[in-house]
């Protein structure tokens, strides 16, 4: 018994040690940035990262001396609108590809997937010319309309919808439910975990955008938070590294909240599925 247990214990210790080291490597930049956000800029410039002179002054300055609240509000509006739009349009498209029978369905879906092979950078010029012609530059619309749907989101939800028991559709047909009723009352509740996953993915994707907002927004009224951080570094706050680190830490908070909420619901869904 001891001969079998000791190798297992040694292997477990080795595994946890390796995981701890890797976790520290991954978290080190974030933890260093978070720590320096509490230090005075002078201490950071001197390289004195072990200083005990910590305070929340950098955070106070970030809220009072920079338009960070405006940037956060812009990103929240853009990310929420993008998330809602993708959940609606991707789920409807996936439903059509699974439950509606029409000629050329497989070919159309193949062409839909082919768009995933195009990098976003290849689409920037035609997209920019289109939104410029529509007069959408420097508005919320220019940040949302190009991302109303997602080929990846349609593919993911289609695969999930295909796992539904065919008996559910047959029962819905017997009960006389139309397509929209079946979609709303059965398909969406049954696939809430994939929908939450897509919602978190689309929200974080919109929140972390940088290149497209840089090209299409020119004022703080519509500039999202990632470009706002870059703007702060090019203004008079360039040398105030303590405040910039505090601003960066503030920006990370919403993404962490989304990840934690998504993880909570994902675990709840998995546990509920295991019980069933």
From TrEMBL:
<feature type="transmembrane region" description="Helical">
    <location>
        <begin position="137"/>
        <end position="157"/>
    </location>
</feature>
<feature type="transmembrane region" description="Helical">
    <location>
        <begin position="16"/>
        <end position="38"/>
    </location>
</feature>
<dbReference type="InterPro" id="IPR035906">
    <property type="entry name" value="MetI-like_sf"/>
</dbReference>
<feature type="transmembrane region" description="Helical">
    <location>
        <begin position="193"/>
        <end position="212"/>
    </location>
</feature>
<keyword id="KW-0813">Transport</keyword>
<dbReference type="InterPro" id="IPR000515">
    <property type="entry name" value="MetI-like"/>
</dbReference>
<dbReference type="GO" id="GO:0055085">
    <property type="term" value="P:transmembrane transport"/>
</dbReference>
<keyword id="KW-1133">Transmembrane helix</keyword>
<feature type="transmembrane region" description="Helical">
    <location>
        <begin position="76"/>
        <end position="100"/>
    </location>
</feature>
<feature type="transmembrane region" description="Helical">
    <location>
        <begin position="241"/>
        <end position="261"/>
    </location>
</feature>
<keyword id="KW-0812">Transmembrane</keyword>
<protein>
    <submittedName>
        <fullName>ABC transporter</fullName>
    </submittedName>
</protein>
<comment type="similarity">
    <text>Belongs to the binding-protein-dependent transport system permease family.</text>
</comment>
<dbReference type="GO" id="GO:0005886">
    <property type="term" value="C:plasma membrane"/>
</dbReference>
<keyword id="KW-0472">Membrane</keyword>
<dbReference type="Pfam" id="PF00528">
    <property type="entry name" value="BPD_transp_1"/>
</dbReference>
<keyword id="KW-1003">Cell membrane</keyword>
<feature type="domain" description="ABC transmembrane type-1">
    <location>
        <begin position="72"/>
        <end position="262"/>
    </location>
</feature>
<feature type="transmembrane region" description="Helical">
    <location>
        <begin position="107"/>
        <end position="125"/>
    </location>
</feature>
